[in-house]
């Protein structure tokens, strides 16, 4: 297994966000982490990345506990939810900088062509539109070759063409044996991409299984309705 | 850490404010030398400006840089970089570029004026060294305040209050306590109280090196007896160093525990 999470608790002030999450992520599959707003998806992902420090519980990535470690992040490519980039540097400089900081080989040129970013390379990040920023974000994430990819709302702001490219990219990485973790509110996207669904509700894993299992348990024929119906049936 | 330092440093060197800060010192240096025509006097005037201004600029720059580079920091946190390296790198980047502005801005006019031929070179070096210390101390303190406060306005407010306290209020309290307790022997008290505030400590250190302690009367004599000696000098430098190290440790402590 590539990620193992045991009894994870996180509190922000009085707000208990994660209340004992147990989760194992197996290698080579695409996982979709779903749940209503505020169910703790981003907190869970940030805990795996070590950006949020849990109050209780353990996380292991690739068999090693992540507590106080940082080298394991070399094995993770992360796409943050909202592309918050330093405004005053150029796209080219940002890509160069991240490459330099990670110190690993990167294949950014192909990705730049795929997403048509050439005209923007010499523009400052503050002048880019939301969708273009997201494309830069995607390039920065996928240009490295790490076994684990975490995507937080990857579809935000993308036009249909870029969305198709992104899907192809994800499938390609999957075919190369990578493990991919996605959060999204676009059910069509999830249905198309995910092998496994992890449904978070009020800080706990409420459902984990394949889409077929989900449809069977909720007695629905349609994925979107099954997700909506998930909380009305008790089958955790 | 060095890579982060490099990027923060370049980022600041390219920013307009570093130039403004540098040009300010450059002008100040030239004007003072031109008006005074005497390096020693210029050093004293400079000291009065520097001792208050450096902490203020350090505080404001530190807080501003921290909040402005939030996006960059978040980007870095997901990369395989140690947390403390990110913040320490940024800290040294800010403090380093401010110190560079100070040293170059004041150094150039003094060198051109003929500092090497005057005997004020030691006083001048001391001025720059304490200036560098004050920069590192106050940038450090402001980083600790900024990392502890999610709210920009609050962070900014606390940082400016801290500067106000150490630069102005502390002296007021100090003087008041001297008047209230004038019946008692206050030599040790005033020595300790001075040493505890980096701004006061720097001021006394420079004043005593300039040999104008006679102006300070009886207390001046005591100060001279302590700070004027080699031991006093070493102790004061050690205290300044301690003041520099403590915020750095605080920053590391906070950085390890914060959620982003």
Short description:
Chain A has 236 residues and is of the alpha/beta class. Chain A has helices spanning 41-49, 91-102, 108-114, 130-142, 160-175, 187-193, 211-218, 223-229, and strands at residues 3-12, 15-25, 30-34, 56-61, 64-65, 76-79, 148-152, 179-183, 196-201, 204-209. Chain B has 260 residues and is mainly alpha-helical.
Structure characteristics:
A: alpha/beta, Rossmann fold, six-stranded mixed beta sheet, four-stranded antiparallel beta sheet, 8 helices, B: 260 residues, mainly alpha, 11 helices, 85% helix, globular
Please explain how this structure is put together:
The complex is a heterodimer of chains A (236) and B (260). Chain A is α/β, with parallel strands linked by helices. Chain A has eight helices and ten strands. In chain A, the strands form two sheets. Chain A has a six-stranded mixed beta sheet with strand order 6-7-8-3-9-10, with helices on both faces. In chain A, α7 packs across α8. Chain B has one domain. Chain B contains eleven helices and no strands. The two termini of chain B are 19 Å apart. Chain B: This is ABC transporter permease. Chain B: The chain crosses the membrane at residues 20-36, 42-67, 88-112, 124-147, 159-181, 231-251.
Query: Order of SSEs of chain B, N→C?
Result: HHHHHHHHHHH
Instruction: Write down the domain tally of chain B.
Output: 1
Q: Approximately what portion of the residues of chain A adopt beta-strand conformation?
A: 25-35%
| Global outline of chain A | globular
Gyration radius from CA atoms of chain B, angstroms: 19 Å
* Number of separate helices of chain B: 11
Shape of chain B: globular
Largest sheet of chain B: none
User: What is the β-strand count of chain B?
Assistant: 0
- SS summary, helix count of chain A: 8
Termini separation of chain B (Å)? 19 Å
Q: How many structural units, i.e. domains of chain A?
A: 1
CATH class of chain A: Alpha Beta
CATH topology of chain A: Rossmann fold
For the biggest β-sheet of chain A, the strand order reads 6-7-8-3-9-10
Order of helices and strands of chain A: EEEHEEEHHHEHEHEEHH
């Amino acid at each position: 297994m590539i990620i193992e999470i045991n009894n994870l608790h996180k509190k922000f002030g009085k707000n208990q966000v994660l209340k004992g999450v147990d989760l194992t992520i197996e290698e080579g599959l695409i996982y979709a982490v779903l749940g209503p707003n505020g169910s703790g998806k981003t907190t869970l992902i940030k805990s795996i990345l070590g950006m949020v420090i849990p109050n209780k519980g353990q996380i292991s990535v690739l068999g090693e506990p992540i507590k106080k470690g940082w080298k394991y992040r070399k094995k993770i490519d992360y796409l943050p939810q909202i592309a918050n980039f330093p405004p005053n540097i150029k796209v080219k400089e940002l890509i160069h900088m991240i490459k330099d900081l990670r110190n690993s080989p990167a294949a950014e040129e192909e990705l730049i062509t795929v997403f048509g970013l050439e005209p923007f390379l010499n523009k400052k990040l503050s002048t880019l539109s939301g969708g273009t920023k997201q494309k830069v974000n995607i390039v920065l994430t996928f240009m490295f070759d790490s076994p684990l990819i975490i995507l937080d709302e990857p579809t935000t702001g993308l036009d249909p063409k870029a969305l198709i490219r992104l899907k192809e990219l994800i499938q390609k990485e999957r075919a190369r044996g990578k493990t991919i973790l996605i959060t999204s509110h676009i059910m069509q996207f999830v249905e198309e991409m995910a092998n496994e669904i992890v449904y978070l509700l009020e800080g706990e894993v409420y459902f984990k299984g394949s889409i077929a299992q989900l449809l069977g348990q909720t007695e629905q024929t349609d994925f979107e309705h099954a997700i909506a119906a998930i909380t009305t049936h008790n089958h955790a | 850490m060095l890579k982060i330092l490099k990027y923060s440093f370049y980022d600041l060197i390219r920013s307009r404010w570093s130039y403004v800060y540098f040009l300010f010192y450059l002008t100040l240096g030239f004007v003072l030398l031109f008006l005074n025509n005497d390096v020693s006097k210029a050093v004293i005037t400079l000291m009065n400006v520097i001792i208050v201004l450096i902490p203020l600029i350090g505080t404001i720059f530190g807080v501003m840089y921290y909040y402005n580079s939030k996006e960059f920091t978040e980007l870095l946190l997901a990369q395989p970089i140690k947390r403390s390296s990110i913040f320490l790198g940024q800290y040294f980047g800010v403090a380093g570029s401010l110190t560079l502005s100070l040293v170059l801005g004041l150094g150039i006019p003094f060198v051109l004026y003929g500092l090497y031929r005057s005997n004020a070179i030691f006083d001048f070096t001391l001025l720059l060294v304490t200036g560098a210390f004050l920069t590192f101390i106050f940038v450090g303190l402001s980083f600790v305040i900024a990392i502890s406060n999610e709210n920009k306005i609050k962070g900014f407010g606390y940082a400016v209050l801290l500067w106000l306290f150490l630069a102005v209020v502390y002296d007021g309290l100090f003087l008041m306590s001297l008047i209230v307790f004038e019946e008692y022997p206050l030599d040790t008290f005033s020595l300790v109280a001075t040493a505890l505030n980096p701004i006061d400590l720097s001021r006394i250190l420079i004043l005593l090196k300039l040999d104008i302690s006679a102006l300070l009367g009886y207390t001046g004599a005591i100060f001279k007896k302590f700070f004027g000696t080699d031991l006093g000098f070493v102790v004061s430098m050690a205290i300044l160093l301690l003041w520099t190290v403590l915020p750095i440790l605080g920053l590391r402590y906070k950085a390890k525990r914060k959620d982003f």
